[in-house]
Model the fold of this input.
Amino acid sequence: MSKPDRHTDNKLKLGLALAAIFWIVLWAVVAHVQGNPLLLADPAETLQALWQAVVTQDFWQAVGQTSARILATAAVSALLGVGLGLVAAGCNPVRILLSPILQVMKSVPVGCVVVIVLVMSGAAGALIVIVAFVALPPFYVAALDGWQNRSRESERVLRCAGVSRFRVFLSCTWPSMLPFLLTATKTAVGLAWKAGITAELLCVPLGSIGAAVYVSKLTLDMPSLFMWTIVVMALGWASEKLLLCLLCLTRKSPRWAVALSCWREPSQSSLPLSQSSPPVLQHSLDLSHSSPSSETLAAEEVSFAYGDRLVLSELTLSIAPGERVCLMAPTGSGKTTLISLLVGANKAQKGSVVAPRRLGVVTQKDTLVETLTPLENVQLVCGGYVAKSQLERELAALLPEGTIGRAVEELSGGTRRLVQIARAIYSATQALVMDEPFAGLDDQTNARACEFICAHQENRPLLVATHHSLDARRLDARVVTLDGAGGLSAARM
Done:
């Protein structure tokens, strides 16, 4: 945390402390003016009641029994809510089926639910049902919204690069869902405690906080009543903070994914770089040990339309292993659409697409893992197949000085494009597909990026969508131009 952030945090804590002192003083003044301890106990009497209670076994038995019951029910409800939310996100009929039930759970008054449960099944299940009623919906909605708002394109790029589903979940999906789950926790935990104590007050299970509150009410013991109220508030606050801390620990999940990727010994083919070689063209990758042989990229009489607008019309294109092709056309002519067909984001409406299972992909959108460094983003796809020392040396030559160890969320747009190019290049894939990879790069950086691609392409086919003929010359690529009708109008060296 930076000094300005620490200063702001300290000011906030001081403000909260002063606010708490203000309300305690106001409470004491009102109690003194009122002058009847049977109606309003003052802070000193409440503190004395707490001191007398904490030394007794009954106090800790009540706290333990109620806490265990409420927290266990809330935890199961949260897990069930997240599970149902994920199922509903992937299955629209399930979401429609659950929608009325969730609406009922969110709108039915707590007291009505407790009474209904008491009539139907007695006191035994009342607390479980009422806590589930208030704790499950927030986590269901959080999981549903988090899943729907995740970056599908980032997940697709990593899956194309051969990253396992579990590592994709850790690096992309979970970080997208976490803010929604944190918000749900702040809402649900406090509600669970309120609902749980309400259920105990109506059911009065022996040895519980609810039973102690009920006895305090019958005996008009206001200090004890205030004491138990404060204890419940403290338990709810502590439970919320504990769960939030546990969830915040999972913010490191992208680095867990990198660690899993690197949990393999680097191949002997990842040789040290020659000190006398040029900085970027020092060493070409040998990924033959970790990926199948390169394959042809091809589209055979492919057609695709968005509604009535035909974008690609019977397009045929083939890129052999080791070949470089630059796809050029005005904006909106179908370059990105063709690439989406090759990477599996869309399906050809006519014709066929031939593409290997593993593709190194650069998209127009930023698909990097924001909290990881450039080195970690690359390690996520290549793991231990390329030595860390080699990656550090070659990335240091490609990227601006001092950026290799910084989180990509702190980097400029141009530097992030370079990291995306490096990630695609170092992936153990059979072909490379890049959609305007040089957008936002200055001329010198563009030349360095093209040199880097040529040096590390190996025998993989390469397709680059671009607007600039200079890119094709620097890549020494065959140029293919899309005409306005969605077909190929020219192909030249």
